[in-house]
């Protein structure tokens, strides 16, 4: 997020076109980075436009405030988008419940805290809004909604670098689009050609068409316009393929059931109920939700970062589930018996009509009383008491959910990642501000053009807070450069010194946690440094050289 | 004078003897290499007894390395792991034999305990299998023994260790395993056959209940962490030091297989309970049946959700909330 802020600040100070042409020579020294073309522009564009609009209205807000508060604002908008989507799929009651769930659920709040200025906070809003517009256009079939959907989709993919239209993972979607067009053409031809002609034509076109499309896609991939499956996506399908640089990122790990429960609490146990009802009462828009849910649940279980994608659909389905339960139990039931009784009454009334009026009145009143008694007995088929108990238990589970979300958010997702805290044995809290102190030392005591070598985790922080040139950073786009740094960290002093002088390094930053018992330091990450270095320089770095006698 | 001549004769004889001995040694080396490579071409893993081991692997001089597996393959030894290791070792040796860089610099050999117990004793080996690398010059060091505890004995790992010790890269070629493909083909044939038999009545594909059950089963499998089990391969359960059986892993970072089954069952019970409650309240059936459904549903939801909450509590240290059970 520091990089995103730096890029946005650069754009606001220098203008949009200089930003697109920006070549940052203070990162990935000595290679530099073409930020303008390699960044996902959506985030910067959004905050830049908000900043511009506010300044035009003479409300002077610093870009830093906008960046910090962007995620909470957009998560509020996500709540509204979720409500709209669920309302389209099921009902307003379900919509309100789903909106309440997503407002609180830890799976989403963890990625949208104030200060986490990252693509995810806004991309999810764009996602839900696009899906709402999509469902609306499916339901109404109007061109207006369809065009608004595509505009919203365009907005969404600026956050992911236009990958949905250029990478081969998305070629399947393009293929379906082509197939739909082919189907429409076929239907039209059916109305103008005879059956025999049509069959021949159809088979011929099918073979030629399928072959042609395949050739085109392969050709595009070969030329390089369509990129082959990226490492991250490939590792989702083939979990045996674990390149060290991808396997080492904590967010790419598999998750246990504990993480599901931690992030979703009761929703993980109740959203299958919503799934059940969606399938049993299937229609066009619910097919979409079902597919979303099933694929989301698979991908979330293979990569913890994708839990964020699963969370909205879990909220929607859980909202549907609770809504059907509460609706069924809160509605006043109609009874079966009186309908048969009514018919009898009519017959009796007809009979009595012929007799005395007062007798008829008495008779009718008697019948009414009898019916009322019947109504009281058969009124609530399940019983008011039972339904009350059900509602109370459901509400108490929802209250538990609320408490759980509060506890999780305050304990796990509220600490700033750069200032740590530790607890002494007697319970007192120590604040560890070493990161910021180290960066401010760098910023105050080193020359402006000093080059700092550190492991890539700290790259953005050094560039953002210490304002010094770094060698590698969290972008992890150049694996061999990272391997070179890893080799320098893992070699003896002579060899490391020669690598560092080659790279013009002036200072080396190393995190050591031994004094405090901080377990996330560079020594803990050392084996990853060796692994990544071994990947590029297998004859110089060997993992087994670094193992102790007992392994 | 005569003494001088005799001394020269003696020197000449000595040098001749020396040369003869040298020739014998050189002959021995090239002879050995020749014998080894002849045998190795026929059988990539050479079987040595004690004498052959001393002659070929330990005998000097050498200009080749030997990778030796010390094993106990006789059935009476009951070493199942030796058999697995032997298969993997055979794979590496075969890959080396048929690789492009095949030369006389590296040989693969095997010493069985029943054929060469003296070797085991001399090297102070008391377990099997052991993989050792004997370099051309010098004695094997600690790293010349493959650390099976840490690395295992998969063919790829053996080849990597050989590459580390000898700088010879061997690309392990596993013969393609057709059993998976065969199973897939059989399955496809079954499915196609079933569909063909029912071709008049394909309505079962439209049956929503079947689809719903399938989707729910998939969801329960995923949310209980089956993918984690598939990749990380955790144990089924664990016996603690006190002798009790631990069904639930104590840390939040790991899980047992039986734990995932328990969680899947709990989730399924909660889902079933909630569906029963909703159906009971909205259907038009017999009243008493609906009441029973509602009560059962309520009980299921409340009890099993409390159970999963308490399991969650046991793993999340410091979590303060619980429902019905502690």
UniProtKB/TrEMBL annotation, chain A:
Organism this protein belongs to: Petrolisthes manimaculis
Membrane-spanning ranges: 38-54, 66-84, 143-165, 171-189, 201-227, 257-277, 289-322, 384-403
Predominant localisation class: membrane
Domain Oligosaccharyl transferase STT3 N-terminal: start-end pairs: 3-158
Identification of the protein by name: dolichyl-diphosphooligosaccharide--protein glycotransferase
Top-level EC class as recorded in UniProt: transferase
Entry EC no(s): 2.4.99.18
Gene Ontology MF annotations: dolichyl-diphosphooligosaccharide-protein glycotransferase activity; metal ion binding
One GO biological process term: post-translational protein modification
Top-level taxon: Eukaryota
The UniProt record lists the keyword tRNA processing: no
Membrane-topology descriptor: Multi-pass membrane protein
UniProtKB/TrEMBL annotation, chain B:
Subcellular location: Endoplasmic reticulum membrane
Pathway given in the UniProt record: Protein modification
Main location, first listed in the record: endoplasmic reticulum
One Pfam family cited in the UniProt record for this chain: OST3_OST6
Any GO BP annotation: magnesium ion transport
Membrane topology: Multi-pass membrane protein
Keywords: Disulfide bond, Endoplasmic reticulum, Magnesium, Membrane, Signal, Transmembrane, Transmembrane helix, Transport
SUPFAM superfamilies: Thioredoxin-like (SSF52833)
One cellular-component annotation, GO: oligosaccharyltransferase complex
Origin superkingdom: Eukaryota
InterPro entries per record: OligosaccharylTrfase_OST3/OST6, Thioredoxin-like_sf
Signal peptide: 1-23
TM segment ranges: 178-197, 209-228, 261-280, 292-312
Function: Subunit of the oligosaccharyl transferase (OST) complex that catalyzes the initial transfer of a defined glycan (Glc(3)Man(9)GlcNAc(2) in eukaryotes) from the lipid carrier dolichol-pyrophosphate to an asparagine residue within an Asn-X-Ser/Thr consensus motif in nascent polypeptide chains, the first step in protein N-glycosylation. N-glycosylation occurs cotranslationally and the complex associates with the Sec61 complex at the channel-forming translocon complex that mediates protein translocation across the endoplasmic reticulum (ER). All subunits are required for a maximal enzyme activity.
Family: Belongs to the OST3/OST6 family.
Name used for this protein in its record: Tumor suppressor candidate 3
Organism: Petrolisthes manimaculis
